[in-house]
Amino acid sequence: MNCFNHEDKTAVGVCKHCHKGICKECSEDLGYGIACKEHISEVENIEKLVSRNIKVNSNLPKNTTFTIYFYLFLGVVFAFFGYNSKGGVYDLPFIMGVGFIIFSIILFIRTKILFSDEKS
Ligand SMILES: [Zn+2]
Ligand SMILES: [Zn+2]
């Protein structure tokens, strides 16, 4: 592959934005990839966006884990007080408690599936 601008020069890579072959003279090495002189700012903006998305995603498991424990705790509290109340297991608090526990388990399984998807 030869440079898009110089037909006699071998391309060192392709611009991350327009995917045209560019020679050393036409390219700008940005550390994480190269860009042609026209698209330096475009490639930089994309890189910033991508690295920000990675940061947001890495925060996700922490938040989900908190939600799971929160519902599990809520479920146990409701179930405990529901079980000890007059209505026992047929009263609403106990049923709600069991519902919360089931919800947290479903959330836990769903998070696990999501993670194994990301890893593969
Ligand atoms: Zn370009
Ligand atoms: Zn060139």
SSE layout and pairings?
Blueprint: E1 13-14, E2 21-22, E3 27-29, E4 34-36, H1 40-84, H2 92-119
Antiparallel strand pairs: 1-2, 3-4
Helix pairs in contact: 1-2
Residues 15, 17-18, 20, 35-36, 38-39 line the site of one zinc ion.
Note the main attributes of this structure.
single chain; 120 residues; mainly alpha; two-stranded antiparallel ribbon; 2 helices; binds zinc ion
What does this protein look like?
This protein has 120 residues and is mainly alpha-helical. The chain has a domain at 58-119. It has helices spanning 40-84, 92-119; strands spanning 13-14, 21-22, 27-29, 34-36. The strands form 2 sheets. The protein has a two-stranded antiparallel ribbon. A two-stranded antiparallel ribbon has the order 3-4. Helix 1 packs antiparallel against helix 2 (92-119). The longest helix has 45 residues, at 40-84. The two termini are 33 Å apart.
Q: What is the string of SSEs from the N terminus onward?
A: EEEEHH
- Stretches where pLDDT falls below 50 for ≥5 residues? none
Query: Main β-sheet, in a few words?
Result: 2 strands, antiparallel
Bound molecules: zinc ion
Span between termini:
33 Å
In short:
This protein is mainly alpha-helical and 120 residues long.
